[in-house]
């Protein structure tokens, strides 16, 4: 099971960060989002959330904006290519969710980087290839100023955390402390529902169907 969720991953383990990530997102989400009372949804329905205007480049250097998928229900999540903790779990959950039916198989998925420096075109393409992600998945990046506005709109606050190398105290690497919510965006471009970890593929699929039928 571990190998299925972490294809070709290194042995470095960041599982100890999981609780911190979940708590960080929960606190930020509670002060930033106004949940709607909608018992028919598995995720948290959102009121008064207009998302964010953006213009970013995907892994093929093609521009994607907040208007690109207007008229289509789509997903937005936040990852980085060197992540070995939450990102593989979130990617696997979304992929499994979309594969539940033909109605959702080609749903656009926008991955927005939380590591603008590390998520190069090469690393983003390698990430997609490693996970076997089709063309409906697009991995977006931009400069930190552009991304900061998007992160703020979606209640994220990624931070760089120094991680001491096991090989040498003088050799330090960094990882990104972040959360990986999955937003279902309706056909008018508004984030309608948010799912947080642990993400249930069946529940995400059901909510995607419900929002698509509105």
Automatic annotation (TrEMBL):
InterPro entries documented for this protein: SCO1/SenC (IPR003782), Thioredoxin-like_sf (IPR036249)
Name of a matching Pfam family: SCO1-SenC
Family per record: Belongs to the SCO1/2 family.
Protein name stated in the entry: Thioredoxin domain-containing protein
Organism listed in the record: marine metagenome
């Amino acid at each position: 099971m571990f190998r299925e969720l972490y294809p070709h991953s290194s042995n470095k383990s960041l599982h100890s960060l999981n609780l911190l990530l979940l708590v960080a997102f929960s606190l930020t989400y509670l002060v930033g989002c106004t949940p709607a009372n909608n018992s028919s949804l598995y995720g948290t329905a959102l009121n008064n959330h207009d998302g964010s205007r953006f213009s970013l480049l995907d892994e093929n250097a093609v521009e994607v904006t907040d208007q690109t998928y207007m008229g289509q229900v789509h997903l937005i999540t936040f990852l980085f290519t060197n992540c070995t903790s939450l990102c593989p779990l979130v990617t696997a959950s979304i992929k499994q969710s979309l594969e539940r039916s033909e109605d959702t198989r080609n749903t656009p998925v926008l991955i927005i980087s939380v590591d603008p420096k590390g998520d190069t075109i090469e690393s983003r393409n390698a990430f997609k290839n490693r996970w076997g992600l089709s063309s409906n998945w697009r991995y977006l990046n931009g400069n930190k100023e552009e991304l900061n506005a998007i992160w703020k709109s979606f209640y994220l606050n990624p931070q760089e955390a120094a991680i001491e190398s096991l090989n040498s105290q003088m050799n330090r690497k960094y990882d990104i402390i972040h959360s990986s919510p999955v937003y279902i965006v309706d056909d008018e471009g508004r984030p309608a529902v948010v799912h947080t970890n642990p993400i249930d593929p069946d529940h995400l699929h059901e909510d995607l169907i419900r929002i698509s039928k509105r």
